[in-house]
Backbone:
């Protein structure tokens, strides 16, 4: 491996991992701008190259780890934890939906104001007024939340975050 690549593999893994960590936490807690989603996805993809270079550079010590129980246990636990998001759960229509919390986000994004207002205990007119006041100027009762966010130049996450912050009246 060329010395330049060898010298930068681990520092880039560290830097990109920190970016991925912070953007992931921001996405999870719905903090900051919608840009965190793009940052997290794209820079996590960029992280693959330095990770592969790091594996190549450190293959001997890593292969020694592979022979020990802690690595096997950590890998099995990690895979099992991720499988929870693929377990189907029943849906009201009798179909199956993945157990992924993202499914709820998708349902909300595709819901119209009337449906969402009923869920949060607000009238349609009140919800439209609150959204317009919050900068979602195109909000209208016959639009989905996703359409409102898109027409307002904002992300679905920003809009759903605003809706989630509203209290019933």
Residues:
């Amino acid at each position: 491996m060329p010395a330049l690549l060898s010298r930068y593999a681990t520092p880039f893994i560290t830097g990109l991992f920190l970016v991925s960590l912070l953007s992931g936490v921001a996405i999870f807690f719905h903090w900051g701008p919608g840009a965190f989603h793009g940052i997290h996805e794209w820079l996590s993809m960029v992280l693959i190259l330095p990770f592969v270079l790091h594996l190549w550079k450190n293959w001997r010590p890593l292969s020694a780890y592979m022979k020990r129980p802690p690595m096997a246990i950590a890998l099995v636990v990690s895979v099992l934890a991720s499988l929870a998001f693929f377990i189907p759960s029943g849906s009201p229509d009798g179909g199956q939906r993945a157990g992924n919390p993202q499914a709820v986000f998708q349902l909300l994004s595709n819901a119209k104001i009337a449906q969402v207002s009923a869920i949060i205990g607000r009238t349609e007119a009140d919800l439209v007024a609150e959204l317009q006041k919050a900068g979602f100027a195109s909000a209208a009762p016959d639009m989905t939340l996703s359409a409102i966010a898109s027409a307002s130049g904002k992300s679905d996450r920003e809009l759903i975050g605003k809706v989630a912050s509203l209290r019933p009246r």
Notes: The beta strands are 88-90, 96-98.
